[in-house]
Amino acid sequence: MDQAVASGKTVEDALEKALKMLGASRDEVEYVVLDEGRRGGPFGIGARDAVVRVERKRADDQGPVQPPDTRIPRTSTEAEHLRAAGLARPRAPRQRSTLRLEEALPRLTEEDFLKPPPGGREAKAVQPRGRRHDRPARPAPAARPRPAAEPEVEPNIEAPQVDLAAQVIDDILRIVGIDAEITIREPETIGDGRGTALAVIDITGDDLGPLIGRRGESLLALQYLVNHIVARRYPGTPIITLDAAGYRRRREEQLVGLAQRMAERVRRTRQPITLEPMPAAERRIIHLALADHPDVVTHSIGEGEGRKVVISPRR
Questions:
Q1: Helix/strand/coil (H/E/C) assignment for every residue in 232-291
Q2: pTM attached to this predicted model
Q3: pLDDT at 181
Q4: CA gap 76, 74 in Å, rounded
């Protein structure tokens, strides 16, 4: 073999692979960089390997090897010819994540959930504010109004909706190059969606930080996408919860612990506390964690992504 084409995460990696294929050292070959590669975006989307072409030096040393005229294949026919010649690039490998789980699930304190009022750091009484156009303010309710009870969802991990969701997740993980396994189980806790979710799909593997995102934002977006796809085929399907590397369970434990500590602060000071905006699932954890508290009540204020929980002293 007098020449070889190899790919790698970097040009250096590709060159080393080509040298091994030829069984040659660097001073015995000349090479041309066919593609410098690309790192890619979130989840490694758009990543591209570096590609080099290496050729043994000729006896007359006529200079470096010129790059071939054939460009990177754009059609299936061209790709088939290159694969037959052994020149096609392999699928880009999974990019190692730069976001660790510790960053996705930081150590939280009460201050992470509180909205400091102007002019001071300590939580003060919450005065409900009107919206634009001089809308009159509504007083905080004495207790969180309870909506009409809805029948609890019966878990069913064998449902076709769950199979579809698992297939969608598996396809997404494969496309973005994340090496992970998925398992299906019944909801066990409030954070899992006990009583509201049809099933829980757990994703396990290495380097799942990008899949979770900061404060679980990427995981929540993926869950929304998967449930949207399922609902298009099976309208009215209860939610299917997604978890990755046990993130939701740890997050739930944090929220319950902080809810109890902030409830104790409200009990001592007799002043309401407003938490930072949270997704609906996390607000539900706070509400249920304090539902039977003898000294405080909770309710939600705001709209959309700005909706937040207020913990007030019970009257």
A1: HHCCCCCEEEEEECCHHHHHHHHHHHHHHHHHHHHHHHCCCEEECCCCHHHHHHHHHHCC
A2: 0.51
A3: 93
A4: 7
Q: How far is 186 from 241, CA to CA, in rounded Å?
A: 10
In the chain, the amino acid numbered 223 is Q
pLDDT tens, position by position, 117-158 = 344 434 333 344 344 444 454 554 444 454 455 678 899 999
Q: Are strands 29-35 and 50-56 parallel, antiparallel or unpaired?
A: antiparallel
pLDDT tens for 27-76 read 888 888 888 777 655 555 556 788 888 888 776 554 444 444 434 444 44
Rounded-to-integer distance, Cα 29 and Cα 292, Å:
76
Residues 6+ apart with CB under 8 A from 201: 162, 165, 166, 169, 182, 183, 184, 240, 241, 242, 243
Closest Cα partner for 53 from 5, 89, 2, 1? 5
Q: What ranges do the domains of the chain cover?
A: 3-84, 101-106+148-249, 110-132+140-147+251-313
Q: What is the CATH number of domain 101-106+148-249?
A: 3.30.300.20
The DSSP output letter for 60 is T
Model pLDDT, residue 21:
86
CB 279 within 8 A of CB 257: no
Instruction: Give the CA dihedral 226, 227, 233, 236, nearest 10 degrees.
Output: 180
Place of tokens 């878990």: 155
Q: What is the rounded CA–CA span in Å between residue 185 and residue 52?
A: 46
Number of C-beta neighbours around residue 124 at 10 A: 16
Which residues of the chain fall below pLDDT 70? Answer: 1, 39-47, 59-150
CATH architecture of the domain formed by 110-132+140-147+251-313: 2-Layer Sandwich (3.30)
